Amino acid sequence: MAMGQPVRLVLDASLLIEPSATGEAAAVALRPGAEDLLRRLRYSNLSVAISYVNGMSTNESGFLEMVTSSHSFGYIPLLAKSGDCSPNDLMLEWSRTSSCFYMTSRDDKGLISELRNHNWRVVSVGNECSIEVPGVLNVGRLQELLLTLATLIKREIGDSSVLVIGYVMKQSREEDFARRGAFPIYPSKDGLIFVPLSFELPLSSQLQEVDTVLHKITDEIIKIDPNCSIDFPKGISFSSGMSEIIRFVEEHPDICIIDQFKNIYPLLDRLQIQNILVQLQELGTEGKTKLRAPYSLKVDNFHDGELDKHLAEANLSFPLIVKPQVACGVSDAHNMALVFQIEEFSNLSVPLPAVLQEYIDHGSKIFKFYVIGDKVFHAVRNSMPNASLLKPSSGGEPLTFNSLKTLPVATKEQQLQTRVQDSKSVDTDLVEEAAKFLKELLGLTIIGFDVVVQEGTGDHVIVDLNYLPSFKEVPDSVAVPAFWDAIRQTYESKRGKAQT
Predict the structure, then answer these.
(1) Which region, left, alpha or beta, applies to residue 225 given φ > 0 means left and ψ of -120 to 50 means alpha?
(2) Which terminal residue of the chain, N or C, has fewer Cβ atoms less than 10 Å from its own Cβ?
(3) DSSP states of 249-286 as a string?
(4) Would you give the DSSP letter of residue 246?
(5) What CA–CA distances, in Å, run from 409 to 363, 382, 414?
(6) Rounded to 5 degrees, what are φ and ψ at 38?
(7) Which of 464, 259, 465 is nearest to 373 (CA)?
(8) Distance CA 123, CA 149 (A)
């Protein structure tokens, strides 16, 4: 198999349908793990078909047709031959022009021998199905198939520069990346194969099969003790699967991780983020646009009798945004409030400790910047209106919101009342310089941050900083290749350092 040669994958229906479903009236259901397998194959960049045999019940065949249609897969009949089944002519034709894989839970030695004679690679799944035909690979569980397929494809290509990337992230994020074509199993133009790591299987054996691990470690946080934030990872409870990966990496320091856990921990704490952003002031020069962090103050309670004094010392005045000090990884990390006067702190529900941050009038526009390897992208989005437009709607109460779900974005009418900005109002050269500075300072491959331009002063203020964002505002045609390039560059850089 050479790079560029098509890969055909045929899944026997026995892999997918619960064997208990028999008879015309029986309800048909997918095996455990089958839905995840099909979902991931949908955007794998492989040509996928499901095969079936004569004699299936009407319920089974109808169910399979529905499954194949919903995932845009093919539907291939296996033909009866002397009591056994044989591949149809199309499958035999594929083997002349493609690298072909057949995966089954059915013990049909005649079919498998004929496929093997036509250079098909065969994998049998399930402890009850161990096919004794030369060249057949037997695996125990359905969840092993994707990693098995990835390693087989790499082996068939025979190119050591092809990398298998094992990734860990929550399902919604994974689906977003996959839908955009970022997680192919067929090698990308950079020679990358992506495969999910399964927490249902022993992780040590999976980690030994992949070349590097891409992770969104914050997706696997269960609990954070905010009192330990300065000493992260102390005080963080991870899922059992992520904890096992962390232990494995500690015991095998040569394994390539994108990115190192210790480089990400500072971004879990808004106070540490503030300390990072303050360093950007070194980039400013007299007579140029000012790039800065927002003025802020940490508080451990909202009933400090000297809060007025502390606010003045921190150069803060109302209104203020109140944010939890823990920046991500827990359910209430994005529960915030806009406070217009000191009395509104009395019944505030934002988790403590918290960070009080200046509210910056910014013309209802926010500029989202993404650093993907050595490339910088940005997009413009509608944002919160100026404070003068928000205060009348507050009714003397703090305005509470979740920044991921219920951010009070300016209405069209409110935007007309403010100085509407566009991307030309941003000093992109200055911000791109800051982007590269942050990437090097943090030692991270992909970061995102938000910039607002303060009305009146023109100050460029970075109000948020995070690791491995979705960069969904960047067109897939440029973002996905940049994503692949970034992973390849990081891998080669880390491997080069390890060998010196």
Answers:
(1) beta
(2) C
(3) HHH-TTSEEES-HHHHGGGGBHHHHHHHHHGGGGG--T
(4) H
(5) 11, 6, 9
(6) -65, -40
(7) 259
(8) 9
CB–CB of 29/17 below 8 Å?
yes
Residues 6+ apart with CB under 8 A from 401: 335, 336, 337, 338, 407, 408
Residue 315 Rama label (left phi>0; alpha psi -120 to 50; beta): left
The span from the CA of 209 to the CA of 164, in Å, is: 8
Please answer whether residues 46 and 3 qualify as being in contact, where contact means their C-beta atoms are separated by less than 8 angstroms. no
Could you tell me the two tokens for 32?
């455990």
- CA-to-CA distance for 313 and 323, rounded, in angstroms? 19
Backbone angles phi, psi at 42, to 5 degrees: -60, -40
- Answering whether pTM is above 0.85, one says yes
* Both tokens assigned to 225: 């003790």
Residue 483 tokens read as: 């994503």
Instruction: List, in order, residues 6 or more apart from 451 with CB less than 8 Å away.
Output: 366, 367, 368, 369, 426, 431, 460, 461, 462, 463
The phi, psi pair for 142, rounded to 5°, reads -60, -35
Cα(412)–Cα(415) distance, integer angstroms: 5
Characterise 364 by phi-psi region: left (phi > 0), alpha (psi -120 to 50), beta (else): left
* Residue (of 354, 338, 324, 336) closest to 386 by Cα position: 338
Query: What's the token pair of residue 28?
Result: 């048909």
Helix (H, G, I), strand (E, B) or coil at 367: strand
The answer to whether the CB of 142 falls within 8 A of the CB of 31 is yes
Q: Name, in order, each residue with C-beta under 8 angstroms of 77's C-beta and a sequence gap of 6 or more.
A: 51, 52, 53, 54, 88
Cα–Cα dist 410/406, whole Å: 12
Question: Phi, psi at residue 442, to the nearest 5°?
Answer: -85, -25
Strand partners, 258: 214
Q: Is the dihedral of CA 299, 302, 303, 309 positive or negative?
A: positive
Pick from 382, 401, 399: nearest CA to 390 = 399
Q: 212 and 196 in contact (C-beta within 8 Å)?
A: no
pLDDT along the chain (500 residues), means of 10: 79 86 66 93 94 81 87 87 82 92 89 92 78 81 95 91 96 96 94 96 96 96 83 89 96 94 94 93 74 95 91 95 92 92 91 95 93 96 86 78 74 54 72 94 96 93 94 95 97 78
* Total residues belonging to the chain: 500
Q: Cα–Cα distance between 301 and 167 in angstroms, integer?
A: 39
Query: Could you tell me if 72 and 42 are in contact, meaning their C-beta atoms sit under 8 angstroms apart?
Result: yes
Q: CA 120, CA 156: separation in Å to the nearest integer?
A: 12
